[in-house]
TrEMBL record, chains A, B:
It comes from Romboutsia hominis. The lineage of its organism: Bacteria, Bacillati, Bacillota, Clostridia, Peptostreptococcales. GO terms for molecular function: magnesium ion transmembrane transporter activity; metal ion binding. It comes from the Bacteria. It holds the Pfam family MgtE. Acts as a magnesium transporter. GO terms for cellular component: plasma membrane. InterPro entries: CBS_dom (IPR000644), CBS_dom_sf (IPR046342), Mg_transptr_MgtE_intracell_dom (IPR006668), MgtE_N_sf (IPR038076), MgtE_transporter (IPR006669), SLC41_membr_dom (IPR006667), SLC41_membr_dom_sf (IPR036739). Residues 141-204, 205-261 form the CBS domain. It is found in: Cell membrane; Membrane. This is Magnesium transporter MgtE. It is a multi-pass membrane protein. The chain crosses the membrane at residues 296-316, 328-355, 367-388, 394-420, 432-456.
Length: 459, 459
C-alpha cells in the first residue's frame, strides 16, 4: 500500500550494513538517489552513533535540509557531536525560518552557542524571526525571498534573481519594493522571463498585491493562499515594508495542524495532547499529566452538568409507583439519542460556521431533520417496546419523549454554535461532551414533563 | 477583521452603480485592479441579469478564470446567456481539469453542447479526464504541464517552455520524457534557467521522481506533496507514461475537504451533508433528506445499543428496594462521564493513527489518564453526595462506579481504533455517538455489578 514506506525499509537495511562496513563512498552514492525526506526517515530509525556517522558523510546541502525537517532534540543532539567547522558550514545553508523555529524550542544558552556560529547577517535575521509569536504570520515566515527595485530593467532583475537564487526559498515570485523598502508590486518568474530585457519592472509588475501583516494570525495567511491559489504570500509590517514571505509548503503544514486542532476541540481536549502522545515514549509521566490537564476542565464541567441532571431526575416520582417503575429503564436511551443527534447537528454547524455565516434558518432546518429522524426512531422503539412489554402507556411515554427529545436535541446542537458566534465567542469551543451533557439535562427534563403529563391522565 | 470582505462590500456597490449607468469603460478599469477571485465573489452577490452584463465585459482570460472557480450551476447559467463566439473563446482559455470537474456534474446533453465548442485536442483531453473517478488522482489532475524530451538542450527546452507557458498550469517544474513518452526525470525551472544553454536535459534532470499513479487515491498525492514540499506532482499510468500533473492549489482544496470529512465522520454524519447545507437555501427538501440519510444509520445503530443498555438496566433490582432507590438518579452522570472521557480518548487515538501506528501501550496510557481523572472526579462527586445526602453507602457505590467507569471508558475509547486498525478497518468510522452508546452499555453493566457487590454486603 505505502510503497515509499517499503522502499525506506529496504534502504534502512542497506544503509546500516554500509555504515557497519565503513563503505562511505558506496553509502554516498546510494543516498544520492534518495530524497532528503527519505534520508531523514532513515536517520530517525538509526541508533545514535550510526545516525551521527551517516550525518557526517552527507553533502552539506542535504545535511542542512535534514536539520530543517528535524525537531529541537534531533537538531541539538546531532549538531553537538560533529566538528565545529562542519557545523558552521551546515548552519550557513539552513533556511532561516526553519532554524528560528527550532531555536525557539531550545534553552537560552544553547541558542547563543548556535548564534555564535552564524554570520552577522543571518544572526540578525534569526533574532528578528525569534521575536514573532508562533501563531502569527511572522512566526512562520522566511526571509529567503527575492526582492528587486521597481526601477530595475527586466534584464537587471533576472541577473539579480540568478545571483540570489541560492538563498531564496522560492524564486517563483519576485517582490518589488520602492526606495523606502515598501512593497509596491509583485511579479511572477513566468512574467519576468517572458518579458523583453529592457522593460522596466514597475511596468511589468502587478500592483494588486495580496499580503498579510507580520503580526496577524497565521490562519489569515492560510485563508489567503488557499483562496487565491498562491505559491507564496508576502508578509509586511504596518508601514508596508516587506519583512518576509510564507511559502505554500509551510501553509500546508499549518493546515495539517489546524485541521486536527478542530477535531480535538470538538472531542473536548487539545492538540497539544497529541503532540505529546506522538513522541517516542507514550507512557511517560509528563505525557499522562499533559493529557489529564487538557481534559480535566471539560470533564469537571460535564460532571457538574451531570449532577444537575441528577437533581432533575430525582423529581421523577413515578419510580416510587411500582406500576410505572420500568419507565426509568428508558432514560439512558431517550437522553442518549438526544445527545447523539445534537452532536451531529453541532458538528455540522461548527464546520459550516468556519466557512460562512450561519443563519437562524439552519436551526429550523435541524429541527426538521430531528423531526424526521425522530419519527423513524420513535416508531422503531415503540414497536420494540410493544412486542416485549405489551403496554401501550409505556410505548406512548417513551416514543413521545424520544421524538421531542430528538427535535430539541437537533435544534440545540445547531443553536449553540449560532449563539456563540452572535456573542462573538469562538464556536469551536463547543465540544461533543458539552453538548452531550447539556442534552442529558434537557432530555431528563423533557422526560419528566412528558411522564408527569401523560401519567397524570393515565393513572 | 476580514479586510478583504470589507473591500468586496465597497466594490459591490460601485460595480452595481457602474452597471446600472452602463459605464462599461469605467467598470473595466475598476475591475483591472482586482483579483479574479474577488470579481467572482462580487458576481455571486449580483442578480442574474447584472451578473451576465458584468461577465460580458470581462477580458477573456478573467472570464475563463472565473468559470474555473465556479460550480456547474453558475457555469451553465452564465455560458448559456452569452454569445456563442464569445463562449468559444472563453472555453478555449479555461484550464482543462477545472472544466472537466464542472462538466462531470452536468447532464449528458449539456456536456455534448460544450464539447462541440472545444478544439478537437481539448475535447479529447476532457474526455480522458472525465473517465477518472473524483476521488482518484486522475480526477484532480490537469493536462496543462510542460514536457520536454530528454535529448533537448537547455536552450531548446527554455524555448519550448516559453512557447507553451500560456497553456501550462505551472511552469515551475518541467517534466522530462523519453521517446516512448515515459516519465524519466524532472527539472525545476530554477535549475533550467541557471543552466548553460548547451547542457543536455538528461544531464540536468533529477531521476529521483516522486509521482503518483493515475488510479490511486487522491490522498496519496496529498501525502506526498505535503511530505516532500512539492509545488506539483506528476501523475503517470502503470506503464509510467506521463498523464498529467496535480498542482499544490488543488492539493490544498483536497486537504480542506478531507479535514472536514474526518470531523464529520467523528460526529457520525458525512461531509456530503455540509456540501448541501452550504448551498443557498438551507431549508430545501433535498437538503433535509440528504441530512436524514447521512445520519439515520448511526442513529439507528445507537438506538439499538440504547435498547441493550435498557435490558441491562432492568436487571438493577435495587430500585425496588426503597432504601437505595436514589441510586438510580446517578446513572446518567456515571455513564455520561465514561462516554465523555471515551470520546476524548478515541478522538486522540483516531488522530494519532492517521499519522503513525498506534501501539497497545497507548491503551495503557489512556487507562492511566482515566485513573487520574477518575480519582479527581470521583472524589468531587463523593463530596457533593456526602454534603447533600450524608449517606456513606451511596457515596461508595457512586464514586467507585464513576472511577472504574472512567478508567474503562478511556481504555475502550483508545482500544476501539486500535482494534479496527488491526482488523484493517478504517478507524475513522468510529464516531462519538457510537462510542457514547457503547460506553452507556458498559457503564450500566459496571454500575449493576458494583451496586450488586457492595449492596449485598451492606444490606
Amino acid at each position: 500500500m505505502d510503497r515509499k514506506q517499503d522502499a525506506s525499509q529496504d534502504l534502512l537495511g542497506e544503509v546500516k550494513s554500509l555504515i557497519e562496513n565503513n563503505k562511505i563512498l558506496e553509502l554516498r552514492e546510494l543516498l544520492e538517489e534518495y530524497h532528503t525526506i527519505d534520508i531523514f526517515d532513515i536517520m530517525e530509525h538509526l541508533e545514535e552513533d550510526m545516525k551521527i556517522k551517516l550525518f557526517e558523510v552527507l553533502p552539506l546541502d542535504v545535511a542542512a535540509s535534514i536539520l530543517e525537517e528535524s525537531d529541537a532534540q534531533f537538531f541539538s543532539s546531532t549538531l553537538s557531536k560533529i566538528d565545529i567547522d562542519h557545523r558552521k558550514n551546515i548552519l550557513e545553508l539552513m533556511s532561516l525560518d526553519d532554524m528560528a523555529d527550532i531555536l525557539s524550542q531550545l534553552e537560552e544558552g544553547e541558542i547563543e552557542n548556535i548564534m555564535e556560529l552564524l554570520s552577522k547577517e543571518d544572526a540578525d535575521d534569526i533574532k528578528e524571526l525569534l521575536i514573532y509569536e508562533e501563531e502569527s504570520t511572522g512566526g512562520i515566515m522566511t526571509t529567503g525571498y527575492i526582492e528587486v527595485n521597481k526601477d530595475m530593467t527586466a534584464k537587471e532583475a533576472i541577473e539579480h534573481m540568478r545571483s540570489h537564487a541560492e538563498e531564496a526559498e522560492t524564486i517563483y515570485y519576485i517582490y518589488v519594493v520602492d526606495n523606502a523598502e515598501k512593497l509596491v508590486g509583485v511579479l511572477s518568474l513566468r512574467e519576468l522571463i517572458t518579458a523583453r530585457d529592457s522593460s522596466i519592472i514597475e511596468d511589468l509588475m502587478s500592483e494588486n498585491i495580496i499580503s498579510v501583516y507580520v503580526d496577524e494570525d497565521r490562519e489569515e495567511a492560510v485563508r489567503l493562499v488557499s483562496k487565491y491559489n498562491l505559491i507564496a504570500i508576502p508578509v509586511i509590517d504596518r508601514q508596508k515594508r516587506l519583512k518576509g514571505i510564507i511559502t505554500v509548503d509551510d501553509i500546508i503544514d499549518v493546515m495539517e495542524e489546524e485541521a486536527s486542532e478542530d477535531m480535538y476541540k470538538f472531542a473536548g481536549t487539545s492538540e497539544q495532547e497529541r503532540d505529546f502522545v506522538e513522541k517516542v515514549n507514550p507512557t511517560s509521566k509528563e505525557q499522562i499529566i499533559s493529557s489529564v490537564r487538557a481534559r480535566i476542565p471539560w470533564l469537571i464541567i460535564t460532571l457538574l452538568g451531570g449532577l444537575l441532571s441528577m437533581v432533575i431526575f430525582s423529581n421523577l416520582d413515578f419510580i416510587m409507583n411500582p406500576t410505572y417503575a420500568s419507565l426509568v429503564f428508558f432514560i439512558p436511551v431517550v437522553i442518549g439519542m438526544g445527545g447523539n443527534i445534537g452532536t451531529q447537528s453541532s458538528a455540522l454547524a461548527v464546520m459550516v460556521l468556519s466557512n460562512k455565516d450561519l443563519e437562524f434558518k439552519n436551526v429550523i432546518r435541524e429541527g426538521m431533520v430531528g423531526l424526521i429522524t425522530g419519527i423513524i426512531c420513535s416508531i422503531l422503539i415503540g414497536i420494540v417496546i410493544f412486542i416485549f412489554m405489551r403496554d401501550i402507556d409505556i410505548v406512548l411515554v417513551v416514543s413521545l419523549s424520544l421524538f421531542i427529545n430528538m427535535i430539541v436535541g437537533a435544534m440545540i446542537g445547531a443553536f449553540m454554535p449560532f449563539l456563540f458566534k452572535k456573542m462573538d465567542v469562538d464556536p469551536s469551543i463547543i465540544s461533543a461532551p458539552i453538548i452531550a451533557t447539556l442534552l442529558d439535562i434537557v432530555g431528563i427534563a423533557i422526560y419528566l414533563m412528558i411522564t408527569t403529563l401523560l401519567l397524570a391522565k393515565i393513572v
